[in-house]
Amino acid sequence: MSVFTTVTPAELAVWLKGYSIGELVELKGIAAGITNTNYALTTTQGKYVLTLFETLQAHELPYYVNLMAHLAHHGIACAAPIANLRDAYIDRLAGKPTVLVSWLQGEPVESPNPAQCRAMGAMLARLHGAGASYAGHMANPRGPAWWSATAAELYAFMPEADGRQLRAEVAQQARHRFTQLPSGVVHADLFRDNVLMQGERIGGFIDFYYACNDVLIYDLAVTLNDWCARDDGEIDDERAAALCAGYQSVRALNAAERQAWSLMLRAAALRFWVSRLWDWHKPQAGELTWRKDPAVFQRILTCHQARTEAAGWLTG
Ligand SMILES: Nc1ncnc2c1ncn2[C@@H]1O[C@H](COP(=O)(O)OP(=O)(O)OP(=O)(O)O)[C@@H](O)[C@H]1O
Ligand SMILES: N[C@@H](CCO)C(=O)O
User: Fold this and answer.
1) Is residue 68 classed as helix, strand or coil in its secondary structure?
2) Would you say the CB of residue 191 lies under 6 angstroms from ligand 2?
3) Rounded to 5, what percent of the chain is helix, strand, coil?
4) Could you tell me which pathway this protein works in (predicted)?
């Protein structure tokens, strides 16, 4: 249940006078989601999602919210923020910063098929294209500096062999620099639960709160590791090839990106192995987070380390 902050219909009806989206018809808490409070909001004009931020502060939100507005303006399927009468996207309610966004059609898919992976790849590449004209800039807060510092605090909690594997991968990644690769705005967390699908169409991307500026193929690697991995950590060739073909139908990877691809898949697995290990071993007091299984990403990393032919997915 993810309504951490309760808002009554009466409070919301008053708050809505600050917007031009009509009168309140229905207010319903959204059960999914683990970080913020989300409400489905129906007015006489349409349907929206109201997010009350439980951890991010108002001053941290503009990069993400302006990015969503920019991408929606460019036709990318994503939640579009709605401005209030003071022309601001970020507002306040019940003591929390808020953002109101358009309601997207669709549902997350648990087991995507190749056609859905293909659609996903194409929309991701379109996001990268549209992001090129976004003026905001934010370095990746979950990049190599973060994962090396975080891993250093985790070794003591890990079985020796796992710690050795983690140390070796952190060291391996540190030997490479990717500054020559095309970079720009990345979502950086496009897991299946952050994409609403309508059959084989993308209903929209949500949850932009890890978006940042980084290497573009890192985003493709993050997406592939979640959309195309089997339970044993192996990547399903058909789904992976479809995702990459969809991406390359919009933006073809260059030679340097192809060369870096295997390492990037490992970097993307490492990032989520480390964040899940951290949440597992060091849950923060009072933090509204659920622990997800770190071993999923250890298995994916192990398979990538063993595989020499990841480039095959790029050629279909
Ligand atoms: N714009 C939208 N249109 C329709 N449904 C949405 C929209 N935004 C969010 N939802 C629904 O609300 C649920 C919770 O949203 P979300 O996953 O962003 O929660 P969160 O707690 O903010 O983030 P997270 O769980 O990733 O930490 C989603 O699973 C989705 O069903
Ligand atoms: N998508 C992440 C959680 C949010 O960053 C995970 O599954 O570990």
Assistant:
1) helix
2) yes
3) 45, 15, 40
4) Amino-acid biosynthesis; L-threonine biosynthesis; L-threonine from L-aspartate: step 4/5
Which atom of ligand 2 sits closest to the CA of residue 276?
A: 8
CB of 214 closer than 6 A to ligand 2? no
The ligand 1 atom nearest the CA atom of 37: 21
Q: Are residues 51 and 96 in the same domain?
A: yes
- Its ipTM equals 0.94
Which residue's CA is the nearest one to ligand 2's atom 6? 272
State the DSSP code for 97: E
Nearest residue by C-alpha to atom 31 in ligand 1 = 32
> Would residue 191 count as lying in a domain?
yes
The answer on 163 and 26 residing in a single domain is: no
Place of tokens 């990015």: 67
Q: Which residue has the tokens 């699908």?
A: 197
Is residue 4 a part of any domain in this protein? no
Which atom number of ligand 2 is nearest to the Cα of residue 272? 8
Question: Which residues have CB under 8 Å from 120's CB, separation 6+?
Answer: 112, 190, 195, 202, 223, 227, 243, 246
Taking the CA of 194 as reference, the closest ligand is 1
Residues 253 and 214 in one domain: yes
What are the tens digits of pLDDT across the range 4-41?
899 999 999 999 999 999 999 999 999 887 789 999 99
Query: Each residue of 180-219: b (16+ CB within 10 Å) or e?
Result: ebebbbbbbbbbbbbbbbeeeebbbbbbbbbbbbbbbbbb
Which domain does 34 fall in, by range? Answer: 9-102
Ligand 2: which of 2, 110, 191, 207 to mutate, judged by most atoms within 8 Å of the beta carbon? 191
**Is residue 10 within 8 Å of 69, Cβ to Cβ?**
no
Ligand 1 neighbours, Cβ below 6 Å, are: 2, 30, 32-36, 38, 49, 51, 79, 101, 103-104, 206-207
Q: What is the pTM of this model?
A: 0.95
Read off the pLDDT band of 310 (50, 70, 90). low
C-alpha distance from residue 237 to each of 42, 43, 125, 204, 227 (Å): 42, 45, 20, 25, 11
Q: Do the domain assignments include residue 109?
A: no
Instruction: Indicate whether 155 pLDDT > 70.
Output: yes
